[in-house]
Design goal:
Number of helices: 3
Number of domains: 1
Pfam families: Beta-lactamase
InterPro entries: Beta-lactam-related, Beta-lactam/transpept-like
Order of helices and strands: HHEEEEEEH
Number of strands: 6
Protein name: Beta-lactamase-related domain-containing protein
Strand order of the largest sheet: 1-2-3-4-5-6
Radius of gyration: 14 Å
């Protein structure tokens, strides 16, 4: 799939805000289970496989997922109230933990802009 950050933001917004699925499918997709990861991430069940929820520092959570292939990386997220953010890199050194953490932090910072913890 080839897309831009704007494309991913538009898709995640429509997905998270219930514009792509029927209500029952939406509820199923957004039913998650904790991963045991200390960052608070939860992974979707059923139709939600591939969709993660993550807590935001100011409260609430965002939905999204990242992906990479040698040389490229993407992390996107959207909130139920209509905020979206995507970070893309084309110098991905193979998905290092530090780079992944920086990309997720950038998405969280963008989603929290103007909000207070």
């Amino acid at each position: 799939m080839i897309s831009s950050g704007t494309d991913l933001n538009r898709f995640l917004d429509a997905l998270v805000r219930g514009k792509l699925l029927r209500p029952a499918q939406q509820r199923q997709m957004m039913t998650t289970r904790p991963t045991g990861n200390p960052d608070g991430r939860a992974y979707g069940l059923g139709l939600g496989l591939g969709l993660e929820s993550r807590p935001l520092p100011h409260g609430g959570l965002y939905w999204g997922h990242g992906g990479d292939i040698l040389g490229y990386g993407t992390v996107g997220g959207a909130t139920a109230d209509g905020r979206q953010a995507t970070v893309m890199v084309n110098l991905n050194a193979g998905g290092t933990d530090a780079q992944d953490a920086d990309m997720k932090a950038a998405v969280q910072t963008a989603l929290c802009a103007g909000r207070h913890a």
